[in-house]
Amino acid sequence: MKTIFVSVWCVLCSVILLNCNVVNSNTSQNTNQNSQLQREWTLTAFGSYSKSDLAARKAQINLTERAENGKIRGTASMGCNSMFFTSEFKNGGKVKISDVGSTLKACQDMKLEMDFSEAFRNMTTYSVKGHFLTLSDDSGNKMEFIAADWD
């Protein structure tokens, strides 16, 4: 009887330990993916805007909020209004941008902000290579970012 109890106990402990390992592997993969994405990103290429125009307006997105249920609440700035959105970076390089909104200040030149807001909603894929983030839509339009903490 004691031998059966010890055998069953060992099997149960083994199953519990194996399950913990599987959970940690998945969590570390998601954590690694999020750690690459969850930073501030400076917009360096978008449409016909020059890099110097984007830099002068301090065009950026901020993905530093903690991920909840696979979604990251983010903010963006194109030089006038504060923008906010929800992003969901999925396996296979897919991204979903939703709940895009902004403050309602009237500024002299809001073309970049309006163009960015319209295009940003349509981004469907992403890639992170080193300190570069690229967002693309189904028509081949791209937004390129560099990590703000990269010198």
TrEMBL record:
Record InterPro entries: DUF306_Meta_HslJ, HslJ-like_sf, Hsp_HslJ-like
Span of the signal peptide: 1-25
Residues in DUF306 domain copies: 36-142
Keyword Cell division in annotation: no
Annotated keywords: Signal, Stress response
Protein name: Heat shock protein HslJ
Species, as recorded: Chryseobacterium profundimaris
